[in-house]
Write the structure tokens for this entry.
Amino acid sequence: MKKVRIGIVGVGNMGSAHIKSVAEIEKAELAAICDLDKAKADEKAKDAGCKAFYNATEMLESGTIDAVIIATPHYDHLPIAAKAFECGVHVLSEKPIAVHKNDAQKMIDAHNQHPELKFAAMFQQRTIKAHMKIKQLIDSGELGEIKRVNWIITDWFRTQRYYDSGGWRATWKGEGGGVLLNQCPHQLDLFQWFFGLPVKVWSKVSIGKYHNIEVEDDVSTFCEFSNGATGSFITSTGESPGTNRLEITGDRGRLVLENGELSFKRTELNVSEFCATTSESFAHAPVWDVKIPCGKDSANAHKDVIADFVNAILEDRAPLAPAEQGINSVEFGNAMLYSGLKGVTVNMPLDGDAYETMLMELINNSTFKKSEVKAAKVDMSSSF
């Protein structure tokens, strides 16, 4: 195989952007486009010079493509991915890989039946230089043992018009959640990529605090890790101008990422050692004020992930963001929501059945008025 023939399912905002990205990747060929909206699919396919489909199963079974990029509403990720694996097609899924933990596990189980196929997630934030540097500093032990983590990510401001732009948006039936499922999966992925999953989660969740929606738009979470370290994660789509600040305190100082800059107040000694051995009552460990260069980020991180996915197929190697890791961010977000809506502390791992039961109750009891939500036309009769 010299080029990977790619099909894209869902050509809304992200799917349309992926069309342009694929066209710029030398080892990729856009072979097909699929969308429930026939006129949109025809228009995009004509412009791209490829075949149009209006049914995901037909595209996956056509033999036209080697790999598929899934850019549909969240609930459709599982059935399309499972069908793709059944058809021998590699999968790159937009975030989140699934709405809830059980569905994420079903995607992983489906892939495990076809381990020769590549399964990647669109976690392009892992390609950001500052994020890569944070990962390196943590893994190398440069920060010492992590003691506390705070992430305030409230620069996701969205207007009411944004939520009104699609019948599936901000509904339990159509989207399965709000800010934790739509805006924050990247930060949830980075959080677990950096620090691993916590062992306890407690959240305050607000439903429609700033908008006329039935899902969460404001969340404050406190968590605890196995080593006793604590963390907080605060997010909202109702604050403007909002904040994006990650603060990591370790035994060798404090690392802060804000406004694209990475600064490290590094102590010359382990803080725990200095605390235990100094003869002074009000002393502080000597600190180096370090500005960490990160390098210039790519102009198109989404394209970088797609290109890596293509190369992973051609070189038969693991992709940059294996989708199996996507279950961790889904589980973390689910735990936040379950804790907040049930008013309990969640001990990890999350009970996936309990969460799915709660979600089904939210869907069945919904009285929120929106236009009818359409499901993807995927025949799953033989996929499980």
About this structure: The chain has a mean pLDDT of 94. The two ends are 29 Å apart (CA to CA). Residues 154 and 235 are 5 Å apart (CA to CA).
